[in-house]
Amino acid sequence: MHTDQPEGVRTSSEWLAEVDWLAFWSIPVFTGVIGWLINWTGLVMLFSPVRFRGVTFPGLRALSSVLPHKLQEVPGVMQGGLGWQGIIPARAAKMGSIAVDKAISKLGTPAEFYQQLEPDRIAEHIVEIFSPELPALIDEVMQAEHPALWRDLPPAGRRAVIGRVREQLPGVVRSITTEIGNHIDQLLDPKIMVIEHFRADPALVVRIFRDFGQRELDLMVRFGGIFGFLLGIPVAVLDLTLHQWWLLPVLGVVVGWATNALGMWLIFEPPEPRRVWGVKVHGLFPRRQREAAEVYAAIIAEDVITLENIGDFLLNGPRGDRTRQMLAVALGPAIDRAAGVARPAVRVALGRGRYDAIRAAIAREGVEYTMTPFRDKDFSREQADKIRALVATRTRELPPRDFVEMMRAAIREDEWMLYAHGAIMGFGGGVLHLWIFGVGGG
Fold first, then answer.
1. Cα separation of 96 and 377, whole Å?
2. Least confident of 138-147, 191-200, 202-211, 268-277
3. What are residue 103's phi and psi, to 5 degrees?
4. Which keywords has UniProt assigned to this entry (predicted)?
5. To the nearest whole number, what is the mean pLDDT of the chain?
């Protein structure tokens, strides 16, 4: 039976007979290579450099406030510079903030973190360190506040004062660590701690991704090559069918954008396993939440919410004055008890003002010694195991959606840069192929 074909329309067999197969397969190969390069360079854009590198232009900082919002998001622009900083380290502080809101606030209250550090063990360590320093501390204060009295006091009298203070020390220190625990919610703010540490050391955020997700990130790069190759096949069919010079550059934009978008989807979505067309799909990062919990907990416990950082925040953070005042008030009665029955006579001999000045000076100096264990790196490292166990357990228990949001927070608003980068590279690949092979391979 004879079927008339419209003039100018070729059958599939005619089309296949006329195809320049070298030109045809060169397109998927090109898109595959470009797809691999897009995802590889996309990872470079995500993580490197950790610190901004570029040049500063006079007036750009003032001009940046009137630029479109998307351009303001480019790292360095708001600071008046042109250059680049990895998207993740550039948004380290933001990730810290969202990490607290989405996860760390659910991991435990400041009181829970503090209890994990074993306040009684901290108290024992304070006494262990503080006790040998007492003679020098009291001598230093007395020499400064009332040298004549201290000089005239017989050695036995000096030893008696020091001995009475030392006797009081364990009870006083335990009352101080208890007092810190009772007020820890007002003295300690984990959100500020995390934000400030991530801002000061953005490499920490890079480590969170690299330490547990490098395998998945490498897979995303390979996926870019595979997906680019597969997308290149329909592109090749269209190019060799329509013979339009603009087709490859335009479709290159589509392929480049789609390669990055699907790469991001592959990493993060869906947060929970589900079936699509009968196939089980699950985001590469959320499927390894348990392993990620261990890595995340180790970084938080060893570098962020450490005993050393807690102590530094308590004394030198935004609420440090309140901590110092609270500790000094708690130490004051110890000095009174050390004076014992002689306190009224000492107060009369020195004068109320002088006695109170000495009492306040000893308490003030004692605050620094009280916080010494918090700055002891070895002791802090021992206590980090408790924090790590708490953070790991709670991170494993996070709802998958919250876990994904915590990991993706640093890049969500800046993903358009990755997609734009993919589109530009796809366009360049299309132009390069057009220059080498011509229109439709001709």
1. 24
2. 138-147
3. -130, -60
4. Membrane, Transmembrane, Transmembrane helix
5. 76
Domain ranges in the chain? 21-50+89-442, 52-84
CB atoms near residue 336 (< 10 Å): 13
Question: Does residue 391 contact residue 302 with C-beta atoms inside 8 Å?
Answer: no
CA distance 438 to 239: 10
Summarize pLDDT for 28-56 with one digit per residue, the tens. 998 999 999 988 998 888 888 888 887 87
Cβ atoms within 10 Å, residue 138? 23
Instruction: Report how far residue 412's alpha carbon sits from residue 415's, in angstroms, rounded to the nearest whole number.
Output: 5
Compute the distance between CA of residue 363 and CA of residue 221 in angstroms, rounded to an integer: 60
- Residues 436 and 59: their CA atoms lie apart, in Å, by 43
Question: Where are the extended beta strands (E) located within 46-132?
Answer: 53-56, 81-84
Q: What is the DSSP letter of 275?
A: E
**Averaged over 390-403, what is the pLDDT?**
81
Instruction: Establish whether the linkage from the previous residue to 270 is cis, with ω within 30° of 0.
Output: yes
Q: String of b and e for 389-428 (b: at least 16 CB within 10 Å)? A: ebbbebbbebebeebbbbbbbbbeebbebbbebbbebbbb
Determine the average pLDDT of the residues in 381-386: 75
Peptide bond into 49 cis (omega under 30): yes
Q: What is the mean pLDDT of residues 313-323?
A: 75
CB 42 within 8 A of CB 415: no
CA distance 420 to 405: 22
Between residues 334 and 240, which one has the greater pLDDT? 240
**pLDDT for the residue 33:** 92
Read off the tokens for 134.
């007492």
Q: Does residue 248 have a pLDDT over 80?
A: yes
Beta strands in 149-296 (DSSP E): 274-276, 279-281
Q: How far apart are the first and last CA of the chain?
A: 35
